[in-house]
Amino acid sequence: MTHSPTNQRLADFIQASPTPFHATQHMVESLLAAGFEHLDERADWQLKPDGRYLVTRNGSSLIAFTLGKPETGIRLVGAHTDSPCLRVKPQPELNQQGLWQLGVEVYGGVLLAPWFDRDLSLAGRVTFRNRDGDLQSRLIDFRRPIATIPSLAIHLNRGVNDNLAINAQTDLPPVLAHSQEPTQDLRELLRSQLEKEHPDCGLEQVLDYELSFYDTQPPSTLGLDGDFFSSARLDNLLSCHAGLAALINSGAGQPCMLVCTDHEEVGSSSTCGADGPFLEDVLKRVIPDNSARIRTIQRSVLISADNAHAVHPNFADRHDGNHGPRLNAGPVIKINSNQRYATNSETSSFFRELCVQADVPVQSFVVRSDMGCGSTIGPITASRLGVRTVDIGVPTFAMHSIREMAGSRDTEYLIRVLTQFYNTERLV
């Protein structure tokens, strides 16, 4: 079924973003086309009051902002660029039973079973020495299916439908080819791909890489009436895309900031994660005076946008009976008294008012009292900065699967309310 214009743009973004590096690169290109200026953290910044700027760190995290009058309070939207996946190990080559495979490491809380019998490709960042002796990095994306993880036939595992136990070390290495003599070398394969995608890079030797397998199946709008949107990496590229679209669509009269950081799925503790100093470093350069910066942060609000759990019709008992978010019923306010989410009554009320102003439905989510609760960048950023925060997200099925599903109308809802937020004159 044909995508709506909004979902087509989301599908294009996801297709162009198989890794956090690609997602960040795509956002940079979109922002530059919209008139934003790319800042370098290693250079001095000369910021103008009416300026529109972006800065990246590690090539996988991005902060974009419009200055306006920051002392009135900054409208921040936070999301994350990474998704659970299978990452290639440093020395991954395996030759077993005449087949060439690559050893992988599980990144984040992956729902492993759906990775079997998929058409997989490979993408990421490769670092190499060029002919001048300099170290450089480039992004690559094989795009076409080059691997799969075949299931074991039910005839050889009769109890598989009763209790599937997946060993991450032995069961997950994807198959890429028949073994050849001499034995295949991943770095030689990467050399060929680099020379294909970047013929002018002056490559001499591939040194290291950060590579992820991903599903090549494109996003789809599905359902008898086109009610659903299915894709890889909806958690959390959907929120990155919505925040990007809202920032570009906003009137730019208010001080606004989009913060898309890497490594949320593994705790955010890194130089470019939400638990690192990236956002604080940028804020210190935007507002150098300590007292003025604290006053500004206390006037600011962060909307932490990360997907929420929709109530599954086959497993409705996994939700609190009064808090079962539904697809296509608008963004979800996420609440947890143990601070796994940073929402409080003031920030949730503020978000509800934004939804009214944007003519967007809104829902709420609280995890069952006898179940553990996930978390987001919201509490991390709130605790580091002291900024008032509301945790929200689009409801989805199959979170952390290789393919997730959202309502086909919810992305538009999220873009509308985030645009309203960026344009609002009064913060809570």
TrEMBL record:
- Required co-factors: Zn(2+)
List, alphabetically, the NCBIfam families matched. PRK02813.1 (NF002759)
Q: Does the keyword Plastid apply?
A: no
SUPFAM superfamilies (UniProt xref):
Aminopeptidase/glucanase lid domain, Zn-dependent exopeptidases
Instruction: Give the family from UniProt.
Output: Belongs to the peptidase M18 family.
Query: What would be the name of the gene that encodes this protein?
Result: apeB
Gene3D superfamilies in the record: Aminopeptidase i, Domain 2, Zn peptidases
What is the protein's name according to its record? M18 family aminopeptidase
- Record-annotated membrane-spanning stretches: none
